[in-house]
Design goal:
alpha+beta, seven-stranded antiparallel sheet, 18 strands, globular, binds 6-diazenyl-5-OXO-L-norleucine
Length: 574
């Protein structure tokens, strides 16, 4: 980590009008950072699969940096974890460059094709046709992941794209043993996969769901990745392969055109930054709703010294912060290139102070008392990985095909499933999407727009400790990252941050969902006495991946979610 990382925010925030106090703080920071360990000297990677973590380490060993490793880890995940993300999907890449202290957000979110019009998803009864919004090519946005890899290799990496993609090509060709999460995802989506021969042919073996341990191979995906390795994003977005995707999508009822693919561009955006009790959080800007919601929640919570409160009071205040932030998410947020959002207001500490003042210290505020919209949620799939390299470059990447195995639709010969990210739009105002999320104009489907996301890859920067954090989990992503940040700030190591029990509130339904072990019976009773409806004993949700570097002690750590139901991930330091 370079000194510049910590200097940058001070400069940015205080500008030329830096106060004397600010200057004193600035030099104190600079002095502290001039300590000998200005680079970690070791790398850490935490991802959802050991082959992906290994691929990242392999690329670092070949002289790559965190950004080359981000390509390698991501591409291997697109092979071994197709239920969660893939080159038929998109994602967000939060990057920190140690050399000059710059933070950068690469938006590789899918876009709506030009043929998008709301009638496409409305059934004869005038209601949202849920099948069309989540299954098959009408549910697929134009993928962003291939363009992200080409951009990363060209602008941030040290190695050729072909080198960083090589592990994924190898794994796709040689195969790997099917594992629990993959097997159950294929089993769950089998009826949809069976609608299209290319989809069934890709994920079923002799018409059957693969058994755990059985070797699965994706030679077509290897060939697709090889084309990208050779021709960059042109190998995916233009030429014969693009034409074949368009032909298959249209034949199956979609609207994609070759122009949609040729026009796709990743966008570099300025990450959203905020201060929380002396820590600097660097996180996802729109079209993620994550950073703004996190900012609202942390700004509200910064008015309390949570460490001095008992667990019930602390939980109550956190739930109330969640409720308020998710209300605003539903009301205001969408694609920043198309929608004007009151970002400065929503992230302002003054606005948070107003929200804080509306929190009763001992009583839940019924969501119905807050003006506005609605959401709930059921997380299915997506993946997050965190990387720190030996020079202190950081990458936090959350990527997705949306629901389990995306749209279930495979273009013949491509080797990958298309996303169903169109369902993240408010396809019909007032009707919930697969996560139960409701929205309005700000997130309406329009040609070229990116659907609003909850993915929240983030950095947590303290005077000594630096964390890279993120997770899948649908709309729970944001509250998971919030709880992860609070735990990290309290001193928890990555493994504990990833393992801690979780709770979630998202405004509507007006219910706190909690993992079975999140609250003791007594804590639950106390929260209920305050007026919270606690839905405890529910399933667990994961799969968070965190890495950290303690600049003072030199410790580099990695932690991956141990949750059984989600299947544990793979964390390594080398
Ligand atoms: O971008 C989003 O918010 C969703 N497409 C993410 C989906 C997800 O996290 C599914 N989860 N586990």
């Amino acid at each position: 980590m370079s000194a510049a990382l910590l200097r940058t925010p001070w400069r940015r925030r205080r500008g030329l009008a830096a106060s004397l106090a600010g200057l004193v703080l600035l030099s104190a920071c600079t002095l502290a950072l001039a300590a000998p360990d200005t680079r970690p000297g070791k790398a850490a990677i935490a991802s959802a699969h050991p082959l992906a973590t290994e691929a990242g380490l392999e690329i670092l060993a070949q002289g790559g940096n965190a950004f080359d490793a981000a390509i390698a880890v991501g591409a291997v995940l697109s092979v071994v974890e197709p239920q969660s993300s893939g080159i038929g999907g998109g994602g967000f890449f939060l990057l920190h460059r140690a050399a000059d202290g710059q933070d950068l957000f690469l938006d590789a979110r899918e876009t709506a094709p030009a043929g998008t019009r709301t009638e496409l998803w409305i059934g004869a009864d005038g209601k949202l046709d849920r099948d069309k919004s989540v299954n098959g090519p009408l549910s697929a946005g134009i993928p962003g992941e291939p363009a992200a890899y080409a951009w990363l290799a060209e602008h941030q990496g040290k190695l050729p794209l072909a080198t960083s993609l090589a592990p994924a090509i190898r794994v796709a060709r040689e195969g790997f043993p099917a594992y629990g999460r993959l097997v159950s995802a294929i089993g769950q989506r089998r009826p949809v996969l069976e609608r299209w021969p290319a989809s069934a042919g890709l994920y079923l073996i002799d018409g059957q769901v693969p058994a755990e341990g059985q070797r699965v191979r994706f030679p077509d995906l290897a060939a697709t990745l090889e084309r990208i390795a050779k021709d960059g994003d042109a190998g995916f977005y233009r030429g014969a392969f693009a034409a074949s995707m368009v032909q298959a999508v249209r034949a199956a009822g979609g609207t994609w055109t070759e122009r949609d693919l040729a026009d796709y561009r990743v966008k570099t955006r300025t990450p959203l930054t905020l201060d929380y009790r002396g820590w600097r959080i660097v996180t996802a800007p729109p079209p993620s709703s994550g950073g703004i919601a996190l900012s609202e929640m942390l700004n509200i919570l910064s008015g309390y010294d949570l460490s001095r409160l008992d667990r019930v009071r602390r939980t109550h205040l956190t739930i109330e912060a969640m409720r308020r932030a998710y209300r605003d998410r539903a009301e205001y947020l969408g694609d920043p290139d198309y929608v004007t959002m009151p970002v400065a207001e929503l992230t302002s500490p003054l606005y948070a102070a107003g929200l804080r003042a509306s929190i009763h210290p001992e009583k839940a505020t019924p969501s119905a008392l807050l003006p506005g919209y609605a959401p709930p949620v059921e997380p299915t799939h997506t993946t997050h990985y965190s990387i720190l390299d030996a020079d202190g470059n950081l990458a936090a990447v959350t990527k997705t095909v949306n629901l389990t195995l995306g749209s279930g639709f495979v273009v013949p010969g491509s080797g990958f499933v298309l996303n169903n990210e169109m369902d993240d739009f408010a396809l019909r105002p007032g009707e919930p999407n697969a996560f139960g999320l409701i929205g309005g104009d700000a997130n309406a489907p329009k040609p070229g727009r990116r659907p609003l996301s909850s993915m929240t890859p983030s950095f947590v920067i303290g005077a000594d400790r630096i964390g890279v954090i993120g997770t899948p989990g649908g709309s729970r992503i944001i509250t998971m990252v919030l709880e992860g940040i609070l735990a990290f700030v309290d001193g928890d190591a990555p493994a504990k941050v990833a393992a801690n029990p979780r709770f979630h509130h998202q405004y509507l339904p007006d219910v706190v969902s909690a993992e079975p072990n999140a609250f003791s019976a007594e804590e639950r009773r106390a929260l209920e006495a305050m007026g919270h409806t606690v839905n405890a004993g529910e399933r667990t949700w994961g799969l968070m991946n965190v890495v950290s570097w303690d600049r003072r002690s030199g410790a580099v750590e990695a932690g991956s979610d141990p949750r059984g139901s989600a299947g544990s991930g793979s964390a390594a330091v080398r």
